[in-house]
């Protein structure tokens, strides 16, 4: 080849030699750094694109993990159809009904109460707002309290002035913002259901890929951390959701016999509040105040006493066993994870906070005591 090029070259010009195979221009280390930078950039870009839907995706993952044991039982009893659509669709539909049914009942009840609110407003503008019976049963200052109420709100002019202070324009703006927020939440809830359907349908593939990714990225310890976080979600569901529902049922019965108005709704509100630490006292405290406003002091004391007993047993005996026993996590860290999670992520933090605390405590135990198998 060099002879051919030498023959073809013009006289007096330098002969160009063949450089041979091209040498690599970049080192493997530089290529690895570029690959990592590209992955991080694409991940950041993907998270930014999905930023509005990340809570919905997180809820779908939490629901898929929490309902995993129940779905496994149903899958063993019901054979899969050809395209694996029936069972995931039924499971997703049941989840939607569980969340939507209380909202429908609440909306119907609110629509019924709206008529009473309108009637109360018209009566207050025409006759004033009568003093509640609880003022007459105060241990001291009953006469002064009744006199103040009569002078301030007991006559039509004062009540009408108080009601007219409510800015109708601001109320209209609040209604528009509330409607926009409801539509936004409904869209996110629908997206969560769609994601939950695909997680149910492809749960075996997702589980296998997640374990493979944990092993490749972090080794066997990564898989253990992932399993510990899943166990913390199960423990949180058992210790918060199920125990909260139990508290709501028990206190709902107390509300019914104590004469609390709308005991079913107050029981449902208590169940939701009981899922948050120190939330149940707020619920049964409001119920006691409503009964006390009707002049039923003994019934109010019964509600407070029953609420304190139920919450004491649940918080000090039942929840530590369910949550701490599942996650091998001291209840103090569970409590801190729940409170910090709610402060940072809202209701979703009920599950994210304990999961993060469980992973951190497991890593700390591995670091200080060596790897220890968690059953």
From TrEMBL:
Q: Where is the composition biased (Basic and acidic residues)?
A: 1-19
What does UniProt give as GO cellular component? Answer: membrane
Keyword list, A-Z: Membrane, Transmembrane, Transmembrane helix
Where does the protein end up? Membrane
Q: How does it sit in the membrane?
A: Multi-pass membrane protein
Q: Major place of localization?
A: membrane
Which residues span the membrane?
A: 32-50, 56-73, 85-108, 182-200, 237-258, 264-291, 298-318, 330-363
Q: Which residue intervals make up region (Disordered)?
A: 1-28
Q: Which domain of life is it from?
A: Bacteria
**Pfam families attached here?**
AI-2E_transport (PF01594)
On whether Transit peptide is a keyword of this UniProt record, the answer is no
Q: Which family does it belong to?
A: Belongs to the autoinducer-2 exporter (AI-2E) (TC 2.A.86) family.
Q: Which PANTHER family match?
A: BLR8064 PROTEIN, TRANSMEMBRANE PROTEIN
Task: Name it.
Answer: Transport protein YdiK
Instruction: Identify the species of origin.
Output: Methylobacterium symbioticum
């Amino acid at each position: 080849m060099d002879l051919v090029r030498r023959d073809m070259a013009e006289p007096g010009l330098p002969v160009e030699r063949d450089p041979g195979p091209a040498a690599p221009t970049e080192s493997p280390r530089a290529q690895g750094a570029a690959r990592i930078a590209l992955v991080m950039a694409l991940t950041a870009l993907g998270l930014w694109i999905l930023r509005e839907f990340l809570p919905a995706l997180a809820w779908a993952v939490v629901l898929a993990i929490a309902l995993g044991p129940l779905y496994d039982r149903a899958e063993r009893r019901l054979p899969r159809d050809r395209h694996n659509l029936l069972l995931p669709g039924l499971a997703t539909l049941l989840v939607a009904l569980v969340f939507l049914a209380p909202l429908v009942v609440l909306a119907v009840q609110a629509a019924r109460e709206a008529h009473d609110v309108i009637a109360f407003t018209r009566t207050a503008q025409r006759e004033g707002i009568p003093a509640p019976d609880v003022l007459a049963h105060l241990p001291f200052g009953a006469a002064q309290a009744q006199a103040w109420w009569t002078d301030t709100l007991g006559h039509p002019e004062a009540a009408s002035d108080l009601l007219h202070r409510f800015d109708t324009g601001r109320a209209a703006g609040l209604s528009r913002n509330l409607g926009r927020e409801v539509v936004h939440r409904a869209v996110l809830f629908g997206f969560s259901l769609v994601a939950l359907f695909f997680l149910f349908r492809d749960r075996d593939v997702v589980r296998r890929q997640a374990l493979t990714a944990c092993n490749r990225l972090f080794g066997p310890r990564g898989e253990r951390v992932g399993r510990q976080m899943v166990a913390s979600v199960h423990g949180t569901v058992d210790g918060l959701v199920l125990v909260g529902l139990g508290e709501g049922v028990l206190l709902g019965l107390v509300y019914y016999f104590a004469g609390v108005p709308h005991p079913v709704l107050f029981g449902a509100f208590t169940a939701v509040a009981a899922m948050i630490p120190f939330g149940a006292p707020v619920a049964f405290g409001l119920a006691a105040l409503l009964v006390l406003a009707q002049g039923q002091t003994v019934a109010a004391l019964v509600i407070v006493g029953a609420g304190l007993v139920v919450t004491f047993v649940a918080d000090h005996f039942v929840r530590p066993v369910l949550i701490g026993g599942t996650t091998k996590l001291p209840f103090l860290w569970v409590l801190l994870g729940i409170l910090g999670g709610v402060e940072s992520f809202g209701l979703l933090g009920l599950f994210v906070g304990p999961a993060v605390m469980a992973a951190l405590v497991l890593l700390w135990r591995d670091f200080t005591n060596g790897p220890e198998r968690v059953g």
